[in-house]
Amino acid sequence: MRALPKSRLLRTPDIRLAFIFTRLINLMWKLLIIVLLIVPLSAAEITQFDVEFTVRDDSVHQLNRFLFDTPVNGTINYTLPDVRDITVTDGRQPLSFTTTASSDGYVLDILVVEPASQLIVEYTTDNVIFHLDSIDHFFTEFSFDNKVNLSASLTLPLGYTLYDNSFKPSNGEIRSDGRNIILYWAESNVDSVLFSVKFVAPRQEQSVWIAVIAILAGSLLFIYLYFHERRKEDMLFGFRHDEKIVINYIQEKKIALQRDLEEQFKFSRAKATRIVSKLVEKGLIKKQRYGRTNKLTWIK
Question: Residues 205, 162: contact at Cβ < 8 Å?
């Protein structure tokens, strides 16, 4: 009998940082789960192993595809951790199986009536996401008795993003289906592999970006107001008080009549004419005859 492949899956609950190291070591020993596939002696070795991880909050849906170089048949035993929603097919049709509880989880007795060149086993495992503050971490390890070609993918939940591009193997490709981030790996002639992915919930990334945008917007507004006031102060430098209030009035109104200045500020016609002439000379306003008065337009 041959046991293929061996994998190690760490399952941990939420823990605080102060106890993380010691409890993590203990859990690694206590919750070490070996996934064991036993095939008849007449069967050849596994040549290709494909695995798809779909992360869903604290659970992970896993699809394992084993490809053999010669067909296998009869009863195949498959040892699994404590999982649910198990399905088994040969790629063409569902296969019958029975489950028996064991110290490691379940033993599946899979009945392969017609010779099959592949075996597909799907299931969902709960409580396999390790949480540390705002960072979620999933990792698992596979080992094989012979060299195999391997492809793997991991799909993050909707809206989740990678944490600091932290994933192993580091040669993985970051892809997307338009909604979810997907990691993809392809390895040749491997006998073991460790997958490790750190990711964060969307609210964490969004809060950071919102804070950054708010800071930038506030900084730009402050800069604008500061230099606006400085420019206004520079523009008013050298003018008398009565001239400054006229400048502010026309700048705010954009268009005003000279008689409005006389009525608003109780200026005499001569004083209003002197102030308007100075503003025209400084290039701040344009004066046009308008009936018995002048229309003043801000142009600065």
Answer: no
Please give the model's pTM, rounded to 2 decimal places: 0.57
Q: Is 173:182 a contact under the CB 8 Å cutoff?
A: no
234-245 CB burial, b ≥16 within 10 A, e <16: eeeeebeeebee
Q: Enumerate residues 6+ apart whose C-beta is below 8 A from 272.
A: 258, 259, 261, 262
Sheet holding 285-290, edge to edge: 255-257, 293-298, 285-290
Segment 175-225, tens digit of pLDDT: 988 889 999 999 899 888 889 999 998 765 455 666 677 788 877 777 766
Give per-residue pLDDT as tens, 134-184.
889 988 888 887 889 999 999 999 889 998 888 999 899 999 888 899 999
Q: Angle 202-236/241-253 helices, nearest 10 degrees? A: 130
At 146, give phi and psi (nearest 5°): -145, 165
Amino acid (one-letter) located at 223: I
In angstroms, the CA 239 to CA 266 distance is 19
Domain boundaries, the chain: 2-200, 202-237, 238-300
Looking at domain 238-300, its CATH architecture is Orthogonal Bundle (1.10)
**Domain 2-200 shares a fold with domain 238-300:** no
Q: Is the domain defined by 2-200 classed in CATH 2.60.40.1730?
A: yes
Q: How many CB atoms lie within 10 A of CB 110?
A: 21
